[in-house]
């Protein structure tokens, strides 16, 4: 089901969390709300779920106005960063919770819970208490619990934020595959651009309570609407006052058309890539090279190189940002 | 590392001396603590028990089956029961209000909850008479409706509820704070209404804090003297509670009954405390 938030504003005291935000999320998509902490993305998600009331604006799900509806009647699945497991209930009872509230027949509940536990690979753990699960398992349980009631949309608030790097990566892939299986419209909040690029079909960049840009990951990366989006979505450096991606800089041994001279300050080898810190005049910048390029150019601290921008360059920031 | 081993040796010796000193000071501390407890608690209570059973169990049973004593236990039981019920409902309600809601006057309410700890129970009793006495406006109106507050059970319950007001709130509120609101919000998004969420999620999470608050309330209600003494009028066989009868008999040199009733009352309180403390670790382990 599609989600549409229109002109949503939300203030907490003096702080404006969302300032006249409008977003449309198409049916069946997997969308990331991406932005720095405190930018308003979680607030938007919680407003969609009905856990917060907007000061003004409307929320529609599947074309129906949900703005005044309490969370109990929205039928959205919500997954919290810190899992929000029901500590005193077994994994099975956690997953069954929504179905028990809906007074479904016992054998239907049992069947559905079995199905879901299988889907999230927890079929062995049904009788355990949440405290006996790892963080990743708890979050999968929370996902199964939210999916149990066949929600119209799934909303995930920094779902992997409390997990360590390895588990986070696994769950990310797993969420992607799960979405491809279940096809429910899913929105997740993250401040990790790599996570957003890796998992989402569509990214909504939110900063300071406003939407900066909406689009598929590639488009945001290659054609950022402004400097903020550009620097938030990937590495950037500055050449001649313009933001460029460090891998979009060409390094030559000799001067050529459009190059500027630079002096190498430092080199760091990170596996196959080499990060070169240099100064152009009194401006610092850095360039990302492959190892073989760096070897071919025989770069060392102190050597002179010539740099120019290639490939996709941001459309000149026309006062934006 | 030529200087290594000797320095290790020296450090070892110094450490041993330090440990011995520490052991000595810990032992000293323990003796002081035990002596303090003995003077304060163990010797007096032990003496009361000893004096009670000085002449065997027979006189004690006789004293406890005195109709006035039986009646006093009944009155104490009724007052304690009502106090526990009211304090549980009110305590949980106020704890939720204080922790889960933001409203003007919240700090004032929070401060008022602790007031009964600061005010002497006798003052509480007198204050209640001022409001609910026969010749006070509120009390007079209630009298007109056929409800007698002062020198009757309702006033005694009111006084006991007042003095035990913070006990449930102050046990439950920190636990509510600690568990946070997310479990409850998760329940809402799964379709559970406020009452369902309270019954299925909140209540199981706070049940041990609540149980502890109830036990403290019960203990306070069983032992309350000052406020009840003022409000009840000490009417023998009518509004006389166990603590009141203990005092009355003691003043009248009927020490056997006074001690017997005291020990019985203390025994009830101790049994309740032991039961709750036995139950609690089980819960943590599971």
Short structural summary:
Chain A is α+β, with helices and mostly antiparallel strands.
Plain-language structure description:
The complex is a heterodimer of chains A (321) and B (286). Chain A is α+β, with helices and mostly antiparallel strands. Chain A has helices at 41-49, 91-101, 106-119, 135-147, 165-182, 193-199, 217-222, 227-233, 291-297; strands at residues 3-12, 15-25, 30-34, 56-61, 64-65, 76-79, 153-157, 185-190, 202-207, 210-215, 237-239, 242-244, 249-252, 260-270, 273-280, 283-290, 304-309. Chain A has a 6-stranded mixed beta sheet, sandwiched between helices. The radius of gyration of chain A is 24 Å and the shape is elongated. With 286 residues, chain B is mainly α. Chain B folds into 2 domains: 18-54; 57-281, Orthogonal Bundle (MetI-like fold), CATH 1.10.3720. In chain B, α1 packs across α13 (255-285) and α3 packs across α10. The chains are: A alpha+beta (321), B mainly alpha (286).
């Amino acid at each position: 089901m599609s989600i549409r938030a229109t002109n949503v504003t939300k203030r907490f005291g003096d702080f404006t969390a969302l300032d006249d935000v409008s977003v449309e999320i198409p049916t069946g998509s997997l969308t990331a709300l991406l932005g720095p902490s405190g930018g308003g993305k979680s607030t938007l998600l919680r407003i969609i779920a009905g856990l917060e009331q907007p000061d003004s604006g409307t929320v529609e799900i599947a074309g129906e106005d949900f703005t005044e509806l309490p969370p109990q009647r929205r039928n959205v699945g919500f997954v919290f960063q810190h899992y929000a497991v029901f500590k005193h209930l077994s994994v099975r009872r956690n997953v069954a919770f929504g179905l028990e509230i809906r007074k479904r027949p016992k054998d239907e509940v049992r069947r559905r819970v079995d199905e879901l536990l299988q889907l999230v690979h927890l079929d062995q753990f049904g009788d355990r208490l949440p405290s006996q699960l790892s963080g990743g398992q708890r979050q999968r349980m929370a996902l199964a619990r939210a999916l149990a009631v066949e929600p119209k949309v799934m909303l995930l608030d920094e779902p992997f934020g409390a997990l360590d790097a390895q588990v986070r990566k696994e769950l990310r892939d797993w969420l992607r595959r799960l979405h491809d299986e279940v096809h429910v419209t899913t929105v997740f909040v993250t401040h990790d651009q790599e996570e957003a690029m890796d998992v989402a079909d569509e990214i909504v960049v939110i900063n300071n309570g406003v939407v900066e840009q909406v689009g598929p990951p590639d488009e945001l990366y290659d054609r950022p609407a402004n400097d903020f989006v550009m620097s938030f979505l990937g590495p950037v450096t500055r050449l001649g006052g313009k933001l460029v991606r460090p891998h979009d800089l060409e390094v030559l041994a000799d001067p050529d058309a459009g190059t500027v001279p630079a002096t190498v300050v430092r080199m760091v080898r990170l596996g196959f890539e080499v990060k070169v810190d240099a100064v152009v005049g009194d401006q610092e910048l850095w360039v990302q090279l492959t190892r073989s390029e760096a070897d071919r150019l025989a770069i060392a601290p102190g050597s002179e190189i010539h740099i120019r921008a290639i490939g996709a360059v941001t459309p000149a920031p026309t006062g934006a940002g | 590392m030529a200087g290594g081993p000797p320095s290790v040796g020296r450090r070892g010796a110094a450490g041993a001396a330090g440990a011995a000193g520490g052991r000595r000071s810990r032992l000293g501390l323990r003796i002081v603590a035990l002596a303090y407890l003995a003077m304060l608690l163990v010797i007096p209570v032990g003496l009361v028990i000893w004096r009670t059973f000085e002449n065997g169990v027979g006189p004690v049973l006789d004293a406890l089956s005195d109709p006035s004593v039986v009646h006093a236990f009944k009155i104490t039981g009724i007052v304690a029961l009502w106090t526990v019920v009211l304090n549980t409902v009110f305590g949980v309600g106020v704890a939720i209000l204080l922790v889960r809601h933001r409203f003007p006057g919240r700090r004032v309410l929070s401060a008022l909850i602790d007031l009964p700890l600061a005010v002497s129970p006798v003052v509480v009793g007198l204050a209640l008479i001022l409001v609910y006495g026969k010749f006070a406006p509120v009390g007079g109106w209630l009298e007109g409706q056929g409800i007698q507050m002062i020198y009757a059970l309702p006033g005694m319950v009111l006084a006991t509820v007042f003095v035990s007001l913070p006990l449930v709130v102050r046990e439950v509120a920190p636990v509510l704070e600690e568990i946070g609101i997310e479990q409850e919000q998760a329940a809402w998004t799964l379709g559970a209404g406020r009452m369902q969420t309270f019954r299925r999620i909140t209540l199981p999470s706070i049940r041990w804090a609540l149980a502890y608050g109830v036990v403290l309330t019960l203990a306070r209600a069983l032992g309350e003297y000052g406020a009840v003494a003022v409000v009840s009028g000490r009417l023998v066989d009518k509004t006389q509670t166990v603590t009141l009868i203990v005092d009355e008999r003691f003043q009248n040199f009927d020490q056997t009954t006074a001690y017997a009733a005291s020990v019985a009352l203390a025994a009830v309180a101790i049994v309740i405390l032991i039961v709750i403390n036995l139950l609690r670790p089980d819960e943590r382990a599971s």
